[in-house]
Structure formats: structure tokens, C-alpha cells
Amino acid sequence: MADLIIKPRKGLAALNFGELYAYRDLLYFLAWRNVKVRYKQTAIGAAWAVIQPFMNMIVFSIFFGALAKIPSDGLPYPIFVYAGLLPWTFFSNVIRMAGNSVVEDEKLITKVYFPRLIIPSSVAGVELLDFCIAFIIYVLMMLYYQIPLTVQLLAIPLLLFFMVIAALGIGLILSALTVTYRDFRYVLPFVIQLWLYVSPVIYPVSIVPEAWRPLLALNPMAGIIDAFRSALLGSPFDFPTLIISAIVSVILFIGGVLYFQRLERTFADII
Amino acid sequence: MSTTDPIIEVQHLSKKYSLGKKREMYHTFSGVLVHSARSLSQRLIGRGTSQTREDFWALSDVNFTVQRGEVLGIIGRNGAGKSTLLKILSRITDPTGGQIIMRGRVASLLEVGTGFHPELSGRENIYLSGAVLGMRREEIDQKFQEIVAFAEVEKFLETPIKRYSSGMYMRLAFSVAAHLDPEILLIDEVLAVGDIAFQKKCLGKMENVAQGGRTVIFVSHQLEFLAQLCKRCLLVDKGKIVQDGPSREVISQYVKLVRSTDTMDLRTRKDRQGEGRVRLTQTWVEDMGGNRSNRIISGQDMKIIATYEVQEYYNCTNLAVSFAVLTVHGVVVVDLGTGTITPDFTENVPRRGKIECIIPRVPFNNGEFVYNALLRSARSGNEVEDWVKNAGSFTVEPGDYYRTGHIAGTASLLCIDHTWNILSA
């Protein structure tokens, strides 16, 4: 083993993949802890993972679909909105939970060393599990509405990847900021609410004027949600929007990691 | 890398905390805005900003090396910088200057039950805590039975640990930690755990660890423990290493240092055990005239005093108190307790009180003594409420114990009344 040198860290640090790999079991156990703890002493347990997007789907279908008659690219509105809610629920939960995660694990931060990135990352692990549970409902809806399977479904893994890094990028920034400024705890629910309206969850990208779409795509979730829906429902991909959103996701992720690693040095002192 | 290189080299290590900044940063955006507005206005009217930038050097220019297989003790008063040093060594916080070279896998044990979650079962927590402390999953699988057996919690493996008694919790927590297998082990004040039998077991385990060729650094207030386990100690005071040498020399230097402060504040001590419904707050030694002094003359009268407070929620009607007096090397000289020659306090126990133990004609003769303070609440099954080891200390100087007009000899620990006869046999 190489010598370890402990000295003041300055400037930006690259991701230490070797170390993260060495701590992979911890990532697993923390995610597993979050799953276990979350549904402890609840009556219906993991069903909550389904209820959140499902109830949203019903409410949105009634108000935006049936009453406001928002177009849904010719698809039944419930499955249209549910396909958008899947990535959106993941994204909003990750940034909400990751934002608080470091502060909540204060005891770990001040008592033991491990790559701090693991804490917010473990949140993404839990949400990914919830995503999979919620996906089962989607499969049932697909059978009900007789949506055909297409080759576009193969894009899902790639879209999942962008979904995770976009959420994690923002989650990392928020978690580091929350350590210093607890304000973000209060800001976040409000921001998430607004964010929903600039993401094509309840409406299709097609109702946004073409000239405005690049701007919309700066929201990484815009391209990802839209592409998700296309992959699931077999409608054509909007490549320009997707590409912009994917690039923004990568930038957010890299920026988030760098920012987080810069601030993590002071976590134990100021938390 | 050769094996003769020191396993740890600490070079010019320093750590600064900006107290003002820390307080400010903890607050909110608006706090920062107010702060920057204030410092701006101060600058405008020509006043310095020195009040807002309180720098505190927790460590300054610390240098030492540790050899492979060495067991090193670190002692010092509260706030001397011991914990900061340990936090930097265990990479929890960054130093401000200097560097440390570590030539081995490090694990640190800064609290009992790191990573424990109250909602999870004993089994689940073994895995969680093990992983947090740096064990791989296979490693935990392998040692699982051993950990469970050592902690003696076989029957409660599936019970959430929030339902564990504090003793069980401590045993489980310590057991996980005791099974870590690093090359360098850093341990802070976590040894005062569990009941006495379990404590002995832990000490045994610790001794095995120390003799197993592993490098260990202990931070502790338990002087006798350090004297037993470590050949070498560092004395840290005000952020500097003031002595580095054989344990017994460093420990007696430490006792002298502590003695210079007469009243010991126990509220900040973390190495305590018990239910905590009644807590010791301060302790000191005084003469019959009420003068606090840690210098006692043999043959005169003294009082050992401790103050305590009862937690709001607890209705305390019984209090049993004891002060065990030990030599600095851990030999119990005498255990003074209520319930032996006087009853426990069972009437009018104040919520905040001062307990006096009067020792007439002090029989200690010469040397440094420390005492442990123990509070028990008698009605609830004699439960330990608060137990602080090495709560205080005092020095005894030889005096006229025998009332002969001469000072007794200096070579012994105690003076005992006695008479002589010579008979033909």
C-alpha cells in the first residue's frame, strides 16, 4: 500500500475512483440502511414508492388531462403523465433527500473518515429502488392501454444514466450547501415545486414553441423526461433537446463532484 | 518503503479554527449578510475587524513519529488538542499546516457505536457499523459469530437496538470495533464502556491488539490504563506537545499539570458512564476551612467534594455516593462510600447539591492520588447514574500524622496507627 500523506488540501480535486471502489460495501450498506429505515414502522412499507407517483398521476389526469385538456401527443393522458412522473419523482426525491443527507449523517461525518460522496450517492441508490417499484405500475398500465413494445426501449439504460447523474450533480451541490446554509432546507420544497412546471411532466415538449426549446433543454430533466416518454411510448425522440439536456447533466455532475469535494474538507468543522 | 521507516510521521502539524467565522457560517444567509454589512461599516468608520476574526490554534507545530508496533498514549487536559490531533490523524478534518505520513491502513474509533442506527436490529447494525468503520462485507461475514459471542447478545440479534439496555448497546458497539483489523488503530476515550466484567474483557482484547504488533494510539483520561498498555506517552497542552517520553514520567507530569487547576469541571467529560439522570458537575478537594487546594498535608483533615444536578424529568429520592482513591498507577488505596459506615442519602436529596466526604486525619502519606466519583440511585435497583474515573486528583505531602511533633518518613504511601510490644518468647 502506498504511503498516505495527510496535509491541507487546496484547489480542485479529481475523483478518487480507487478509494470509492474500496468503499463500495459502505455505499451498499448505507443505501440498504436508508431503505430499511425509511419503511420501518410504516403499515404499508414499500407501497409508498408507488403511491406518490400514482396519486400524482390521478390528480394530474383529472385536472390537467380531463379538465384543462392539455395535449398529450395523442396518447392517453394517464400513461403520458405517468411516463413523465417516473423520472421526475426520482429526480425530485433525490435532490430533496440528498440535500439533507450530509447534515442528517452529522454523527458519521464528525466521527469517522470515508469518502463523503458516498452519503448523497446512497440516496440515489434508494431512489433507484423506488423507481423500479414504481415502474411495475407502468408495466401494468402499458398492458392496460396496449402500448406496443418498440426498439426505442433500448435507450432506457442510457437515459437512466443521465437521469442519475443530473440528479446526483444537483444533489451534491445542495448537500454541500446545506451543511453551511441550512436555508436550503426551506428553499428546496419550493424550488422543486417550480421545477416541475419547467419540466415537461404534465405537458409535452411539442406545445413549447420550437425557438424556446433549447432554453427549456437547459433544464436537464426536460430532455431526459421527454426522451423517457419517447422511449417508453414509442414516439419519436427530440434529439436536439435531449442532447442539450445530456450535456447539461454531465456538466452538472462534474461540477457537483468538484464543488462537493472542495467543500467536504470543512464539513467536520462547520456541520 | 522499508519496514524500518516510522509508520506515522507527524511534521509541523497545525490546525486553526476561526471561531468567529465558524459561528457565522453555521447561521443563515441573512446572518452572513448582517455580518458582512457590519464588518463593512466597521471598516468604513475605521474600526478594526479583529473582534470578528477570533482565530484559535487547536494545534501548533506538532511533531512526533510512531514506530511500527508501538502503543502510544496521548494525554492532556480537556481542550488541549488531543481530540483535534486524533481527528486529523483519522482524516475527519484537514490540518491547516504541516503534514502526516501514514504507512499503513488506518481505522479510528472515536465513539462507541459509530454508524449505529436505533431502528435497525443488532444483526443489521453489526454490518452497518462494520462497513462504516472500514470493514469489507466478507470480513464482517467471517467475524460475525465472533462479534456476537464477544458482545453476549446472541438472543437479541433480531431486536432493534433502540430496545437494548445501555450496557448491551455498549457491548455490541465495542465488540464490532474490537474486531477491526487495521495496521494503525486510533482510539479516543471509548474504553470506559459497560459493566466492570465487560470492561475487563475489553482491556484484555485491547492488550491482545497492542501485543499483536499493531500500532495503536490511545487518547484517554484513564491514567492507569495508559500506564499499563503504553510504554510511551505524549502530553499535549495548549495545542503543543509538552512532553514525549516513557509513560510513567509523562503521566506524573500530567498529574502535576492537572493539579495546578484546583476545581475540576466534570460537565465536559465524555468518558463517563451510567444512566445520567443525576450528573456530576464539579469536584475538588478542600481543607476544613473551605479553602480549595489539591495539596494536602498528611495527618490534617480534608474534604473531597462533588457537586451534582438531577435531571428535570427524574425524581431522585435516594443517592449513594462513592469516591475511590487510587494511586496514579491504578492501585485502589481505599473506596470511600455511603452505605458502609453511614447510610445512603435517602431524605431531602436536593436537585442541585454538594456532597462532602470528610476524611479526618488524612492517612495518605506521600504522593499523587486520583479519585473516581460514582453516583448511584438506590431505589431503582442501585443503578449507576454517573461514574467518572479520575474525576479529580490531589497531592499529599508528609506531615505529622502520628502527632509526635515529627514529620513521618517519606517512603510510604500510607500512615497507619500502630503500637509495638516486645515479649519474651
From TrEMBL, chain A:
One annotated GO biological process: lipopolysaccharide transport
TM spans (from-to): 43-67, 79-96, 117-145, 151-174, 186-206, 239-260
Membrane topology recorded in Swiss-Prot or TrEMBL: Multi-pass membrane protein
A Pfam entry, by short name: ABC2_membrane
Predominant location: membrane
GO MF, one annotated term: ABC-type transporter activity
Boundaries of every ABC transmembrane type-2 domain copy: 44-263
A Gene Ontology term for the protein's cellular component: ATP-binding cassette (ABC) transporter complex
Compartment(s) where it occurs, according to its Swiss-Prot or TrEMBL record: Cell inner membrane; Cell membrane
Entry keyword set: Cell inner membrane, Cell membrane, Membrane, Transmembrane, Transmembrane helix, Transport
Family to which the UniProt record says this protein belongs: Belongs to the ABC-2 integral membrane protein family.
Protein name as catalogued: Transport permease protein
Source organism of this protein record: Candidatus Andersenbacteria bacterium RIFCSPHIGHO2_12_FULL_45_11b
TrEMBL record, chain B:
This protein's UniProt keywords: ATP-binding, Nucleotide-binding, Transport
Residue ranges constituting the ABC transporter domain according to the UniProt record: 44-263
This protein's record includes keyword Nucleotide-binding: yes
Domain of life per record: Bacteria
GO MF annotation terms: ABC-type transporter activity; ATP binding; ATP hydrolysis activity
Annotated coiled-coil segments of the chain: none
Any one GO CC term of the record: membrane
A Pfam family the protein falls into: ABC_tran
Family assignment from sequence similarity: Belongs to the ABC transporter superfamily.
UniProt name for this protein: ABC transporter domain-containing protein
Protein's organism: Candidatus Andersenbacteria bacterium RIFCSPHIGHO2_12_FULL_45_11b
